[in-house]
Structure formats: C-alpha cells, structure tokens
Amino acid sequence: MTTIEMKGELSVQNADDLKKILISALQKKGDILLDFSALEDIDVSTVQLIYSFYSSCKDHKLTAKGPFSPRVKQRLFTCGIIPDANLGDEEVIKATEEKMRTAHE
C-alpha cells in the first residue's frame, strides 16, 4: 500500500509537488491511502487536484483516513464535497467517497 500524507496547509503553491506525488502513486501497484490526519487546511486547487486524482485511480483501491481539521471540513463543505462541515471523521470519509464515486459513474 502507498500512503500519501497530507500535511500542513496545502494550497496552489504546493499543487505541483502534490501532483508529482500523486502521479508517482498511480505508477505503483497496490492500494493507495490518503492520510489527512496532519492536514491543517486545504484550498480549492488542492481539492480539485485530489478530485482529479480520484478519477485516475481506476486500477487502485483508494481510501482515506482522518482525523480532519475543522478548516479542512469547512473547505470540503464549501466545495460541495460533504453535506455538512460538522460531520464526524468517518462521515467525512463516507460522504467524500460517495461524492467521488457518483461523480465518475
């Protein structure tokens, strides 16, 4: 399994580096875990990059884990990924996976 740790505050300034990491993970075999437990904040460009990454994971099982910071939950809510910024961590994962799956069917 390849684990990708999301750390600190991810924004457009980090997008190129994150894109390289995500592409590298796609080139490996096996499952991919996105670990959001050290992520403090995320901007729309990073949400879009992760959204695009999800659609590219056809040959991989992609999972996520938290906990998610209140700022990250708020960003995901604002972007329309989750229905409520006050969801618990497991609910954030479930809602995110559902949104990503239905968007690419």
Describe what you observe in this structure:
The structure is a single chain. With 105 residues, the protein is an alpha/beta fold. The chain has a single domain, classed as Transcription Regulator spoIIAA (2-Layer Sandwich). It is 48% helix and 23% strand. The chain contains 4 helices and 3 strands; from the N terminus they run E-H-E-H-E-H-H. The protein has helices at residues 15-27, 44-56, 70-78, 89-103; strands at residues 2-10, 32-42, 62-65. The chain has a 3-stranded parallel beta sheet with strand order 1-2-3. Helix 2 links the parallel strand 2 and strand 3. Helix 1 packs parallel to helix 2. The longest helix has 15 residues, at 89-103. The protein starts with a strand and ends with a helix. The mean pLDDT is 90.
Q: Given the C-alpha coordinates, what overall shape results?
A: globular
CATH architecture type: 2-Layer Sandwich
Number of strands: 3
For the largest sheet, list the strands in their spatial order: 1-2-3
What distance separates the N and C termini? 25 Å
Can you identify the CATH superfamily? STAS domain
**Number of DSSP helices?**
4
Biggest β-sheet strands, sense, barrel: 3 strands, parallel
The top level CATH class name = Alpha Beta
Order of helices and strands: EHEHEHH
Helix-strand makeup class? alpha/beta
Poorly predicted parts: none
Strand composition percent: 15-25%
Rg calc: 13 Å
